[in-house]
Write a structure and sequence with these properties.
CATH class of the largest domain: Alpha Beta
Number of helices: 9
CATH superfamily of the largest domain: Ribosomal protein L10, N-terminal RNA-binding domain
Order of helices and strands: HEHEHEHEEEHEEEHEEEHHH
Family: Belongs to the universal ribosomal protein uL10 family.
Protein name: Large ribosomal subunit protein uL10-like insertion domain-containing protein
Number of domains: 3
Structural class: alpha+beta
Keywords: Ribonucleoprotein, Ribosomal protein
GO molecular function, one term: structural constituent of ribosome
Radius of gyration: 31 Å
Pfam families: Ribosomal_L10, RL10P_insert
Distance between the termini: 105 Å
CATH architecture of the largest domain: 2-Layer Sandwich
CATH topology of the largest domain: Alpha-Beta Plaits
Largest sheet: 5 strands, antiparallel
Shape: flat
Length: 274
């Protein structure tokens, strides 16, 4: 049986999470692997005015959300449950989603390549002088990195794609990157999902700008108008084009005949009867 102290802590956690779900209607589901306590402190301080961070055990968070939805009848938060896998937490916010995301990304920190670590991104070593003495060439030979000796030090002759995303870092790669003083990885809170007033979507959606939306709508209207003109089926999208095409036909007739009208003379810049 759980102790009284644990029960009190669980009840307090449940109350806090429920209060946040009552207060906020937007949240980020974030992944927090390799994020240090100092990073958390800095992020909390930076978004304190409009956002709250809540971490916890997945089972506890899922249980609290499920009971909250049953009690209130608001089942929109249930969408998060299937995505609560691994070391995750929630950032509840009233701020602009894009701005909050930018602030979170500002607190990523560089990290060295450790043996056995799964690479979160590609690692490329740039060509150039390494400053290492010729006795260190064995590291480069093991990794098939082309080098030459220049002014008593090892020089890499071409960019080398050392590690691919998803690969495990080997001992040779980790040692070489350490000797070169390269910290190829960066860690911070990673946004997995965005919850916004009952909708759950990928954070990539936040990259879509108003200009992008406008271009997509414009392209769609053009396609609709083209199809309607081809089918001779008038719609709101095609009527402006039909009117312009009709006016062009009338204008062409005015040019080829003695018929004229004020708008034609204005567009052509002269009177047909001068």
């Amino acid at each position: 049986m759980p102790s009284a102290t644990k029960l009190v802590k669980k009840e307090a956690y449940d109350a806090k999470l429920c209060e946040l779900m009552d207060t906020y209607d937007r949240a980020f589901l974030v992944h927090a692997d390799n994020v240090g306590s100092k990073q958390f402190m800095d992020i909390r301080a930076a978004i304190r005015d409009h956002s709250k961070i809540l971490m916890g055990k997945n089972t506890m968070m899922r249980r609290c959300i499920r009971l909250y939805c049953e009690r209130t009848g608001n089942d929109q938060w249930l969408q998060l449950l299937d995505h609560m896998v691994g070391n995750v937490g929630l950032i509840f916010t009233k701020g602009d989603l894009n701005e909050v995301r930018k602030v979170i990304d500002e607190f990523k920190v560089g990290a060295p390549a450790r043996v056995g670590l799964v690479a979160p991104n590609d690692v490329t070593i740039p060509a150039g002088n390494t400053g290492m003495d010729p006795s260190q060439t064995s590291f480069f030979q093991v990794l098939n990195i082309p080098t030459k000796i220049t002014k008593g030090s090892v020089e890499i002759t071409a960019d080398v794609h050392l590690i691919k995303t998803g690969d495990k870092v080997g001992a040779s790669e980790a040692t070489l990157l350490s000797k070169l003083g390269i910290k190829p990885f960066s860690y911070g809170l990673v946004i997995l999902q965005v919850y916004d007033s009952g909708s759950l979507y990928d954070p990539k959606v936040l990259d879509i700008t108003d200009e992008d939306l406008g271009n997509l709508i414009t392209a769609g209207l053009r396609n609709v108008a083209a199809a309607c003109l081809e089918l001779n089926y008038p719609t709101i999208a095609s009527v402006p084009h039909s009117l312009i095409n009709g006016y062009k036909n009338v204008l062409a007739i005015a040019v080829e005949t003695d018929y004229s009208f004020p708008q034609a003379e204005k567009d052509m810049g002269f009177s047909l009867f001068d």
